[in-house]
């Protein structure tokens, strides 16, 4: 099993989410993320104070079986792409084990619903 963490533009989220569902990746979590990188955000100045230069993104956290790793990464690379600085990053890490609390299933079986 692998954990994929993808930092993407907020504007690409709905497109990425739909594409992940299309390839049967139906469960993932996401969080609002702020960071700094090569992209430069214009600071807005209002009444003498400026906002921060942090860039707002979403971080998707997806755990997949090894057989689904390539198609998931390829999907993210295609759908999160704009060609502009600030498209994001994808990180892949190994997962030693996973458990579904409700059924107590473990390993690959805990990642998907049985038919």
Q: What does this entry look like structurally?
A:
The protein has one domain (2-38, 54-111): Alpha-Beta Plaits. Helix content is 18%, strand content 30%. It has helices spanning 13-22, 69-79; strands spanning 2-8, 29-35, 45-46, 49-50, 55-64, 88-94. The chain has a four-stranded antiparallel β-sheet, covered by helices on one side. Strand 3 and strand 4 (49-50) form a beta hairpin. The longest helix is centred in the middle third of the chain and has 11 residues, at 69-79. The chain is elongated, with a radius of gyration of 17 Å.
Task: Evaluate the radius of gyration.
Answer: 17 Å
Distance between the terminal alpha carbons, to the nearest Å? Answer: 20 Å
Helical proportion, percent range: 10-25%
Estimated structural class: alpha+beta
Unreliable spans are none
In short:
The protein has 115 residues and is of the alpha+beta class.
Spell out the blueprint of helices and strands.
Layout: E1 2-8, H1 13-22, E2 29-35, E3 45-46, E4 49-50, E5 55-64, H2 69-79, E6 88-94
Antiparallel strand pairs: 1-5, 1-6, 2-5, 3-4
Helix pairs in contact: 1-2
Short key terms for the protein model shown above:
115 residues; alpha+beta; Alpha-Beta Plaits; 2 helices; 30% strand; elongated
